[in-house]
Amino acid sequence: MYKDTIYLHTDNELEDFIDEKREISFFSNKKINIFDLNNWGLTETGSLAHESGKFFSIKSVMPSLSQKSILHQKDIGFLCLFKTLINGQEYYLLQCKAEPGNKNKFQWSPTIQATKSNFSKVHKGKIPSYFDLLVSILNGTKKGKILSDSLLPEQGEIYWQKYNRNIIIETDFIQELDGFKWFSKIQVLRELGKLSEINSCLRSILSLEFCKPNKLLATNPNFQTQLCNISQGNKGNFELSDCLDLNHTDNGDLCLLKKSDDLIVTVVGLEVNIDGREVGSWEQPIVTYSKESTKVAVRVKSNGIGIGWIWSINKQAGYLMGCKVGLMELPQAHRLFNSYSDLNPRNISTVNLPEEGGRFLHVNNCISFFEIDVLNIELVQYYLKEDENISILTDYESANINQSGMLEMDARSALTLMPVVYCD
After folding, report:
1. Which helix (H) or strand (E) is 379 found in, with range?
2. Given CB 3.0 to 4.6 Å as the disulfide criterion, which of 134, 154, 291, 377 pairs with 162?
3. Averaged pLDDT of the chain
4. How far apart are CA 17 and CA 107, in angstroms?
């Protein structure tokens, strides 16, 4: 399939490039008390916010059960991937981007990864590279073909109703600025196979590129209506409250969520110094986990050919409709496999994927990939009919709900990794 690919950069050149960035760039973090952060503090109403009123704030969720507090970022961010064709082959312009929470300092990210605070220069730094070109394409003054444009959700246990605009644009070949490289499609897949080299924002947007709706695979034309009904039934009664409960602080850290006795999500303060960013130094709150969280992705095959996925309907305080479609939690998957052992689930791979380092400090999420092989999809639907929180969707349906913003971040990563893990 890729025998005629022209490599603008060899794999070794790309690897040497990011390794050199990591070696020569100054990069340091220091954890500090979250209430001692420069330019951050408690507002009159009791939330933790930046003095500009921009970036994001931390507020309480009511009623306060396991979810103690949550990040609130009103503005929609931009994740944009530029794509071009050379001799009929697909190439993507990736950015080598440093983030304070990255264990490996630099990762490959979308061409543009920016919040409104970034591109409106609240931080008094430079505007993100290629952002002016993006604006010109969107308003029609410069040439570009919009291939995908979807509002996709951030994690509902971390953010309150937060979305990013994920855009893929086909352009003419454009020159690489410093820190940017054109990758062939096969090279992107190879980087995905390394797991830690590509950030979660790029995995998110690639789910739109690698998993496109194919109407030939549709089996249930009413699935979107059914999901909307499920969403309405699961819509929570959570409300946002400005006043933080400071009883949920410990040594200058603030508890966001207690998922279990040993899995606690907190926000800590971080002093950051990084070369090559729009701003070289700053202080910010950042999210950390007490241990890795494990989710389960289940691919459904028929006679060895992938036809769909088993998804969970996941309720989170921060989701606009109360829930989204996503991966199963590990105990949930174990119950399913134990109840229907004749499905013969097979563990294909277990991977650790880095969270976005601008908001998460050294956080990896573990995804355990399984597959089941059945005669037909109706057999799996029969097994799952007793559990309204678990559904099977064809590839077409999964791609469609992804485009409509109903698929969780981890589930989008699973879609993107499908050709790497399952060789579909």
Report:
1. helix 377-384
2. 154
3. 88
4. 11
